[in-house]
Amino acid sequence: MSQVGTYWPVYTGKSFNLWEADTGVYSASVEPSVACEALQRKRENGHRNSKSAFSRMPSEWVSDPSTLPCLAPRIAIRDTTNSTNTRTIICALVPQDVVITHQAPYLLRILGTARDEALLLGVLSSMILDWYARRVVELHLTASHLNNFPVPDPGEGHPLRDRVVEIAGRLAAVDDRFAEWAAEVGVPVGSANDEATKQDLIHELDACVALLYGLDEDDLEVIYTTFDEKRPERYFDRLAAVIEHFRRLR
């Protein structure tokens, strides 16, 4: 569990990793009532600022402390990164009852459902989008980058979209802290914690995302052989596993 006694952990970028919601590395801990009071004030102030995402939310939502984002799972993303890291986009669905520092901004769900959130999480976590990100991101993954990333969405009911949602939901819902979110997505909790199952789903996710982007096998070869330009052979095994799923799904 992420809770530190009666205190909440303060997450930083090192507190999570790809498909790892809680590394156990925190920058501090905080008393929940103190955190919620401060975050509620910040949210109310943001609601009055047109540049804040909170300004787009209904007044009833903003004024209700029970709707604070820290009380529900949300997608967090590491701010500091660069194109020479193993991965450029490091994100995760982090649990409720944690506070997040500015080094790990979170995505506020303004519209849509948990299934839309799972789709976005799946695309952001794929090596397919990461390859693109490595061409435009330098030291910080900014809001401008995120807003301009192309995210394919053919709409609810599309079989590939639904499969991305299911895979991302299963990979993210590692324990009961995500039970309510998992129920909304329509996936069981803890169904992908076995390492072999987890890795196979990660490979299938890449294949699904590639197909949503309209890529072919030649495109996949370029992505995996140029992802680490100093070691083009580094992802040969992953490429083979992804192509196997790609051919089956296509």
How would you concisely characterize the structure shown here?
The chain has 250 residues and is mainly α. Helices cover 44% and strands 8% of the residues. It has one domain (8-249).
Q: Explain this structure to me?
A:
It is a single chain. By secondary structure, the chain is mainly α. The chain has one domain (8-249). It is built from ten helices and six strands, in the order ββααββββαααααααα. The protein has helices at residues 32-47, 59-63, 114-125, 127-133, 143-148, 159-172, 179-185, 195-212, 217-226, 236-249; strands at residues 8-11, 28-30, 74-77, 91-94, 99-100, 106-107. The strands form two sheets. Strands 2-1-5 form a three-stranded mixed sheet. Helix 3 crosses helix 6 and helix 9 (217-226) packs antiparallel against helix 10. It is globular and about 50 Å long. The mean pLDDT is 94.
Topology of helices and strands:
Layout: E1 8-11, E2 28-30, H1 32-47, H2 59-63, E3 74-77, E4 91-94, E5 99-100, E6 106-107, H3 114-125, H4 127-133, H5 143-148, H6 159-172, H7 179-185, H8 195-212, H9 217-226, H10 236-249
Parallel strand pairs: 1-5
Antiparallel strand pairs: 1-2, 3-4, 3-6
Helix pairs in contact: 3-6, 6-8, 8-10, 9-10
Q: Top keywords for this entry?
A:
3-stranded mixed sheet; mainly alpha; 3-stranded antiparallel sheet; 250 residues; 10 helices
Helicity range of the residues? 40-55%
Biggest sheet layout: 3 strands, mixed
Count of discrete domains: 1
* Main sheet: strand order: 2-1-5
Number of helices: 10
Shape: globular
Spell out the helices and strands N to C: EEHHEEEEHHHHHHHH
Q: Approximately what portion of the residues adopt beta-strand conformation?
A: 5-15%
Structural class: mainly alpha
Stretches with pLDDT under 50, minimum 5 residues: none
Rg, alpha carbons: 18 Å
